[in-house]
Amino acid sequence: DTGVSQDPRHKITKRGQNVTFRCDPISEHNRLYWYRQTLGQGPEFLTYFQNEAQLEKSRLLSDRFSAERPKGSFSTLEIQRTEQGDSAMYLCASSFGNPHEQFFGPGTRLTVL
Amino acid sequence: GQQLNQSPQSMFIQEGEDVSMNCTSSSIFNTWLWYKQEPGEGPVLLIALYKAGELTSNGRLTAQFGITRKDSFLNISASIPSDVGIYFCAGQMVGANSKLTFGKGITLSVRP
After folding, report:
1. pLDDT, tens digit, for every residue of B47-71?
2. Is the model's pLDDT at A59 over the cut of 60?
3. Contact flag A100-B31 (C-beta cutoff 8 Å)
4. SS3 state at A104
5. CB contact at 8 A, B91 and B100
6. Phi, psi angles (nearest 5°) of residue A38
7. Do B97 and A56 touch (CB under 8 A)?
8. What is the β-pairing status of strands B106-111 and B10-14?
């Protein structure tokens, strides 16, 4: 049983560039979540999918951010025109059945120079 | 912003000691969860609680869902060096669907 995987694990980019992250949830998990975590803080909710439908988005998800889950399996999170304030760990989680038992991936650490 | 309070920010204990952490909120939560995070990794689920007053154990870990539904406690007994990490409480607020709200975490250090 493989856990949630995320790719890449680390990304360094220059301000203004676009970046895309991928998340592969645990097999058969129908719910997928994206969170952002900055240093010294807990994860903060960004958005959530049930199957391919994006059901909730946080106000943290500005119009530069877009997430997709086209076939209800893996998901991508794209950040356009990155800013230094976007530097953070981006975490993906998935769940099945009880939605509150969310299992997290290792995260993608983004550094915007 | 986050609405779960965890303090202190750091705790230092001796190997073999027990340690307690609590998490409080001004809002009612339907579900409480405790996660542990190690450097460079995602949070790992330790214990989930679903009913007010519920007491649940997972090995040396015991957690309780507060009667008021505004707090939760995590106890670690007989600590060992591998207990080092950041412990987060998380909860699902009433009406929040699947969204989890996290505390800022407590960094636990265990001296051998």
Report:
1. 999 999 999 999 999 999 999 999 9
2. yes
3. yes
4. strand
5. yes
6. -105, 165
7. yes
8. parallel
Query: What is the per-residue pLDDT across A2-16, written as a single tens digit (0 to 9) for each?
Result: 799 999 999 999 999
Categorize the per-residue pLDDT at A72 as very low, low, confident or very high, splitting at 50, 70 and 90: confident
* DSSP state at residue B41: S
Chain A residues with CB-CB distance to B42 below 8 A: 4, 91, 93, 104-107
How many beta-carbon pairs under 8 angstroms link A with B?
Answer: 72
Give the closest-approach CA distance of B10 to chain A in angstroms.
11
Specify the pLDDT at position B96: 67
- For A53, residues 6+ apart whose C-beta sits below 8 A from its C-beta are none
Which pair of tokens denotes residue A76? 């991508």
Which residue of A24, A35, A100, A103 to mutate against B (max B Cβ within 10 Å)?
A100
Q: Which two tokens stand for residue A62?
A: 């500005």
